[in-house]
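Quick entry between incubations.
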Amino acid sequence: MPQKTDHKPRARTGSGEARWGHALALDATPQAQPLYVQIAEAISADVRRGVLRPGQALPGSRSLARDLGVHRNTVLAALRELEKQGFLMTEPARGTRISEQLPVQPLAPSVRARGLADFPVPRAPSFRVMATPPGHFTLLGGVPDLRHVPTAALARAYRRALGRRANLGYGDPAGSAALRAGLATMLARTRGLALTSDDLVVTRGSQMALDLVARALLRPGDVVAVEGLGYRPAWEALRATGAQLVPVPVDEHGLQVDRLAALAERVPLRALYLTPHHQYPSTAVLGAPRRLQLIALARQHRFALIEDDYDHEFHYEGRPILPLAARAPESVAYVGTLSKVLAPGLRLGWLVAPSPLREAIIARRSVVDRQGDLVLEEALAELLDEGEVARHVLRMRGLYEQRRDFMVERLREIFGETLSFTVPRGGMALWARVRGVDVDRWAEAAASRKVLVQPGRLFSFDRRARPFLRLGYGAHDETELARAIALLNQARHSL
Amino acid sequence: MPQKTDHKPRARTGSGEARWGHALALDATPQAQPLYVQIAEAISADVRRGVLRPGQALPGSRSLARDLGVHRNTVLAALRELEKQGFLMTEPARGTRISEQLPVQPLAPSVRARGLADFPVPRAPSFRVMATPPGHFTLLGGVPDLRHVPTAALARAYRRALGRRANLGYGDPAGSAALRAGLATMLARTRGLALTSDDLVVTRGSQMALDLVARALLRPGDVVAVEGLGYRPAWEALRATGAQLVPVPVDEHGLQVDRLAALAERVPLRALYLTPHHQYPSTAVLGAPRRLQLIALARQHRFALIEDDYDHEFHYEGRPILPLAARAPESVAYVGTLSKVLAPGLRLGWLVAPSPLREAIIARRSVVDRQGDLVLEEALAELLDEGEVARHVLRMRGLYEQRRDFMVERLREIFGETLSFTVPRGGMALWARVRGVDVDRWAEAAASRKVLVQPGRLFSFDRRARPFLRLGYGAHDETELARAIALLNQARHSL
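Done. Structure below.
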């Protein structure tokens, strides 16, 4: 057993003092930890480095205090701290020593730490969402005009929901009962869905709905058909389960269901993911013949339809088409969102699915994030109940339709035959075929002029270039759209 | 080609009128869809059922209107709707007919619909979070007293964040820069973590942090060690990746690291999930010797440490022990939450992990729910910056410590040797060994008296009974605790 005088801790040697003094100087800012903590840390660091060894005696608190230039109480506090953490042991007869229960030589200083940074981490999905840089024109389809969001009404409803304190604790992973009831009423009125609040799960935007359906339904090796031009974040969610995705072509009438039928004959399909209302990105509306054929196919081959109805409200030519879920609820997992209706940042979506899939989804959801933000959900339920959401939709539908018409007219005027497109019957974007210009270079040149547009490549399953531009008209008023289109024209002429 | 008079649609026959009349009667409530929609739906339903066939002519709008007892304009609107949906085609010379592009006999009425309800859905996790029923005493560890949450300050900050409209759109999946900066400062001051805001990912509570780490790090077949008494929702997140969990025993000093060392010799461990600060559920503090041994083991065998530090702030005996992440950041994925600090319902947690694991986690997060609620995150950043959170922690730490002392005294007084426990050094619950009473029956009898307590079985890896009760003291004041303990005593005597 080493004697007290034989094994002076480093703190009492010249170099030890220097090192400690350095550590104290380092942390002398107002934000620094208390002195006693810094001393305790320095001692424990020396233990970890093997400078102080198990069983080794510490000098007395008075001499330590003198060496360090601090009050003795500070040293005593540091020693108590270290004792509590198990670094020190104090026995009346033997004074204070480094604990003998520490592992001997826990770390030789020469051993290079090998940690998570060296781990073979599985490849991350290639998709990462980024925010729009400020000061840009965002002609990105699907970004609503956030200047019109009724923030004052929402803030009031949020304050009331928060003040009730009823939703500050743990709650139902299926979502707030009030919001589910409000959404069920809205979906029944606007989409012909026959459902009660128990058929709904509230999610963090449509993305979580897609992720949950994927995780509940799919297993590695399952085959899932998707639109050959489509929504990559959904593909990533499906793919993350180990499912194999197979693209099916789309044309100006949406998904080519004949091609799907041929595929279903060849391979056992587990599911089809699609956007039948306003096909993403082409905005094509899937007509009744294809819809009926699709439902019959799904029943015959027993695959699930994952229907993403992301902007149902914004349909300008007559009434929106009823979802597949209204015609074949037993075959469909129906996904919707308030991202376009109100704002993407609220992250409020939903999922309608038949039991037991719905039960499996709720159970899985409790593992993903336990539950939603029930305070926000109650606030949104209030806005739904009061008709605030319906009024906002009406207002914005009118605005977006005007912007669509303006955009169509101006694009035809300025770009003539360079852009050809069908006037979209709904949504916040149009899908234009580009002639005689390299779309990828055009999109880049536009971005350098702070106009963001999406070339066809972003939506193609194989990531190859496609001679299309997706041009959103939701986020800007007509003056801004005119300016953005002028810049887009400049960008074209710069090539 | 059928002639108009040869194939009268069902609507003109007596039974057709009766059926349609029925459908209209069904939907005559004020919430009903417009009449024209109901008519269109009835016709399209007959097409789907095969009652009306492709190519078949429809009666004229006047006779339909007369038969249905509605204005002719209503019928015309219905026909326009059906035409738009592709069900009808109108040619000047031939009148209105059912579209010939519809699939012939889309559904024989005798074919029973087979849908998602019949699908073999993979088994859902057995864990499902439920809300606490109202009017109960919740002696559940980890539920804070929500009556003290600074809701007014939060509502104000939320209103300001919402009013700025800066976070209503798409944003950074790693979380608000302001909140990440605020949390980084807090973690550096209170936990000795050396980090910047770029080292943090903001998550929906600790559950999402655990789920994301699991999904980024684990692959099917990976072996993950967990505490043999522990936190089931974390296990479910780990297990959902296909990883195999192996329990390691815990004792009154926390995880038995020697047992872990023996395990690591036998099987290649990919990770260890643990709660070293206040072991869940036993509240044991993992001491320095075991911590150092653990870090050395993790480095030697190259497994990751997933450190769940769920209630770091509420430590009553001296300073909290520094996390493993402060000692070996390269080996640790560090998980924390504001659930105990403020309220579980806010779903605000974080994750600190070395790159590239952190990058993989952010990419995966964008697939799970795209991004967090950046408005709420900005509001919480404001509360952190203003010191509101720190003041709240100080206040609640004092309260919880008093409640702990009250609980300890009262339990000893009332239950004597029936309950034996170490006074917890932190947290919001104590872990008591029960002698001479069946804990499961006791917990049931208490629940029937509206006192919720958790028996050992809920925390054991094998779900077998354990002679322990976890008794939370965070959610109630001393008067309420006294009442709950009296009811718990009644429940014991009722057995």
